Amino acid sequence: MRESRWRTWAGTVGCAPARTVRPTGEEEIVRAVRKAARDGLSVRAAGTGHSFNRLVPTSGVLVDLTGYTGIVALDTAAGEVTVRAGTRFTELCAALHRRGMALPNIGTLAEQTVAGALSTGNHGTGLRHTALSGGVTRVRLVTADGSVRTVGPQDEAEPGLWGAVRCGLGTLGILSTVTLRCVPQFRLRMQLASERLDALLERFGDWAAGSEHPSLNWLPWSDQVTVRSVDRTCEAATPGAGLRRLTATLDEVRCGLTGQVARLAGAEAVPRLTARLGGLWPDGPYVDAGHRVFTFVQPVRFLAMEHALPLERTPEALRELRTVLRQLGVYSPYSVLVRVGAADDVALSPAYGRQTGYVNLTVPRAAGQVEILRAAEPVLRAFGARPHWGKAHTATAEVLAPRYPRWEEFQRVRSRLDPGGMFTGPYTDTVLGPVPAPEPAVAGR
């Protein structure tokens, strides 16, 4: 008898696994993997379901990690925190804050689990900061044979494993615990400015380097962008900072309502509807604890696509995107979000080997605007983009392999750790291809 269906956070992708396991300890994960091996079933791990594609769905065993949470150890002197894989950022950041510590950079969605975010290449923004994977110092990994490995940068037993395990799409095993760098807690000051898009694109590199955590929001029918500059400060927290942070959540609600109205009025009416509903809530400068400035509550379900481009090609890509979206004439109430990041050395990280511009497009999940994503994807792909592993895209292994210099190295690690393909699914077969046959042993080694 199959378990009840599992669905993603957005509610657009689901599955009916043969068995669902909800561990609260590492040994339960080990037992689940070993039993799946005996029963000949595939295994996929799930967190809060914030991927927008078929990354998790399986007809085999679903290991739901959302009950496997909490801090295992905090070493303030070394600046490291070890957490269980299903821990959400919201609880991790709050716990660190109570102890005078913080993560140096995170994305906007605090409800994601640490393992899920790590495995798909999640990131915040800032050229001084890599994706989350760059802040990992070691992990514990449950592999296909039911063994548990502690993997770190000095690991020599499995060549290439450290470069692979920090963004592995769940194909190398199940992450049990993750150790992350942390820093003394800090406050951030967020301020907004408006600028013409063309002027900003002309100085894009200087803009990207001008703030520790820059981002911009752009409504494609407009020639203006809203620029966010977020930087560390010694200023006291702004009175009522929590209410100022609520602005972002209210804007999400506005976008959701606009999308619903657009179902009746037509997506071409989105600019008019946005003008009528926008500007209802103040969104001025404020200071607050770092994790509270980085994140906000996102109550409205949506679909998102993001691509990571070479930083220097991002302005050109945005100009071309403007042309294509205006020709399409169908608009989303959500703005295009642009962030930046440092290069890293993780084999399948979208930021591998290059400073990166991240271009994110979001659409209402039920407003018939998915065609916006279909129109935008080939534009971004033409500029050397790599898709976010957890968001909507149509790339296949044939498209992706040439974009990752360490692709073959990752595949060799995968074939050694999971030669039987236990940790595969329809999505991984599409984006990574089948598990390669293990390389034959060389005599004398």
Automatic annotation (TrEMBL):
Pathway: Cofactor biosynthesis; L-ascorbate biosynthesis. Residues 13-185 form the FAD-binding PCMH-type domain. InterPro entries: ALO_C (IPR007173), FAD-bd_PCMH (IPR016166), FAD-bd_PCMH-like_sf (IPR036318), FAD-bd_PCMH_sub1 (IPR016167), FAD-bd_PCMH_sub2 (IPR016169), FAD_lactone_oxidase-like (IPR010031), Oxid_FAD_bind_N (IPR006094), Oxy_OxRdtase_FAD_BS (IPR006093). Keywords: Ascorbate biosynthesis, Oxidoreductase. Pfam families: ALO (PF04030), FAD_binding_4 (PF01565). SUPFAM superfamilies: FAD-binding/transporter-associated domain-like. Belongs to the oxygen-dependent FAD-linked oxidoreductase family. The keyword Acyltransferase does not apply. It comes from the Bacteria. The keyword Nucleotidyltransferase does not apply. Transmembrane segments: none annotated. This is FAD-binding protein.
